[in-house]
Amino acid sequence: MLPERKSAAEITYRESGRRDAPALVLLHGIGSTSAGWRLQYGPLGEHFRVVAWDAPGYGGSKPLAGEAPSVEDYARALARLLDALDIRSAIIATNSWGTPTGVVFARLFPERVRALVLGGPAAGWGSAPEAERAKRIAARLERVATLGIRKMREDDAAELVAPGTRAEVLEWIKGAEGLNIDGYAQAARMLAAVDVPRAAAAVTCPAKVVAGELDRRTPPETNAKRIAAALRNGSLLMVPNCGHLPHLEYPEIFNAAVLEMLKTLSQPSAA
Predict the structure, then answer these.
(1) Tens-digit pLDDT profile for residues 144-193
(2) 243-264 pLDDT, tens per residue?
(3) Separation in Å, CA 73 to CA 16, 121, 166
(4) Cα separation of 194 and 74, whole Å?
(5) Whole-prediction pTM value?
(6) Is there a contact between 173 and 156 (Cβ–Cβ < 8 Å)?
(7) CA–CA gap between residue 247 and residue 21 (Å, rounded)
(8) Which of 90, 102, 143, 247 could join 254 in a cystine, given CB atoms 3.0 to 4.6 angstroms apart?
(9) Nearest CA to 207 among 221, 228, 223, 226?
């Protein structure tokens, strides 16, 4: 069962675990919300204070100002939420579009990020020519305006996961509660402007990239592998027979990666 939504700093979020446990902050993808972490609240809530936001413009969260907020705007919104929840530092885990915010948050506030776990990460389009970026944004926004959020999610579900993924995961993906076109449009414009590998090169905390070998939405060669190579203290875990959503397709692998990061951080440093 999903935890109920709460609200702080004009952001809605879901929470599980003990408030005095190490903090784990979860950042969802462009077509999801805090509900997308349904397979993490229970297992990881046994070890962490788990907090999953609804990004600005998603769920009940107030949108950011302007048509095209920057990734730094999203990162500062996350900082305001963590301040309101009295979370000074955390492990941050992401999926897809949540990755730019997590990586840039770690660049802006290195003292607040103990480690990163980046699932099915999106590298962003910031390194592409401006005309190409504009074309990709226009195509995304035209598609969602024509289909609507729910139909778009229904059409995308099978592409987001590996063939043979269990039916309940496909049904979760199709759910559109908490999604709206305006929030999606802001998110798409942010993705078009950011170059995650460039930002990752300035991140010093431990980081693990968890990517599906069959990810068709953000192919590993141009996304996960570029990000992992740019990280100063990063590693890459490729998951066989997995698509874009390792936290839903193989939650036991994704959750184990998060727990392994916590275990590593808890070990005393060598003398």
Answers:
(1) 999 999 999 999 999 999 999 999 999 999 998 999 999 999 999 999 99
(2) 999 999 999 999 999 999 999 9
(3) 26, 19, 36
(4) 12
(5) 0.97
(6) yes
(7) 21
(8) 247
(9) 228
